[in-house]
Design a protein that fits this description.
This protein has 234 residues and is mainly β. It has one helix and 17 strands. The protein has one helix at residues 12-17; strands at 3-7, 33-37, 44-47, 57-67, 75-87, 93-101, 109-114, 127-140, 145-155, 166-171, 179-180, 182-185, 188-191, 194-195, 199-201, 215-216, 229-232. The chain starts with a strand and ends with a strand.
């Protein structure tokens, strides 16, 4: 991993305290040095408005940008998680939860509703945890911005919706900082065997791969967790 090295003159406890709360630290104490693991670049996510109303059939329900710093390094995405809150007629169904980008006509991955509390709550019919895995890593090059979409196919009895019906989604981050090797399988990816909500890589390892130790969670992403994004019927 990328490391910053500092000579120890005043003791390890003081050096660690100066790093601040919430910093992930991997310590190697050799020849009186402390090396601290940090990503060589960090993505920024920003929500983007959708000027659309909710309807039966195909809908875009979430849109956001991911940018990589121009002075940094390419990065890639692999796994995401959303909270989805719905206000829909009884008997509705949500199908083909697909993830795509503005620069490709291909679907990057599909989402599945989790039946467990992996998003931090017990899901219900109207309050759901959506996990989404990308079939292949999606690379965002340094100095560029890529726009992503989450879409669903909505069906209701008699194909009718009513004023106030809505779908609200929140892109999740992660609490404790975690990095290491990719684990799990689509749509539920993790790091070091622990499920994570936002899985990405700074592509620092040489060679980089699905088993290299340059995978990071959403704690290192600027802009997470996002505010809820709602698409509704006027």
């Amino acid at each position: 991993m990328t490391a910053k090295s500092t000579k120890v003159f005043v003791g390890i406890a003081v050096a660690v305290a100066m790093l601040g709360i919430g910093t992930l630290i991997r310590l190697y104490i050799r020849d009186y040095q402390i090396k601290i693991a940090t990503p060589i670049t960090r993505p920024t996510v920003t929500v983007q408005p959708l000027l659309r109303s909710l309807a039966t059939g195909f809908n875009y329900v979430h849109q956001f940008n991911v940018s990589a710093p121009p002075s940094g390094h390419d990065l890639s995405l692999k796994g995401l998680a959303f909270v989805m809150d719905v206000n829909l007629p009884s008997g509705f169904s949500l199908n083909t939860l697909a993830f795509g980008s503005s620069d490709s006509t291909s679907v990057l991955g599909y989402g599945v509703f989790a039946n467990d509390s992996s998003c931090g709550f017990a899901p219900s019919a109207n309050h759901r945890c959506l996990r989404l895995g990308l079939t292949n890593e999606c690379v965002i090059h340094a100095g560029t911005i890529k726009r992503f979409f989450l879409s669903v196919i909505l069906a209701t009895p008699s194909n009718r919706l009513y004023s106030g019906n809505s779908i609200s989604t929140t892109l999740l981050g992660d609490g404790e900082p975690v990095y290491g090797t990719l684990s799990g399988s689509s749509p539920s990816f993790g790091i070091n065997g622990t499920l994570q909500n936002f899985v990405w890589s700074d592509l620092e390892a040489s060679p980089h791969s699905l088993v290299s130790d340059d995978w990071w969670n959403g704690n290192y992403v600027y802009g997470l967790p996002m505010a809820a994004f709602t698409v509704s019927v006027p």
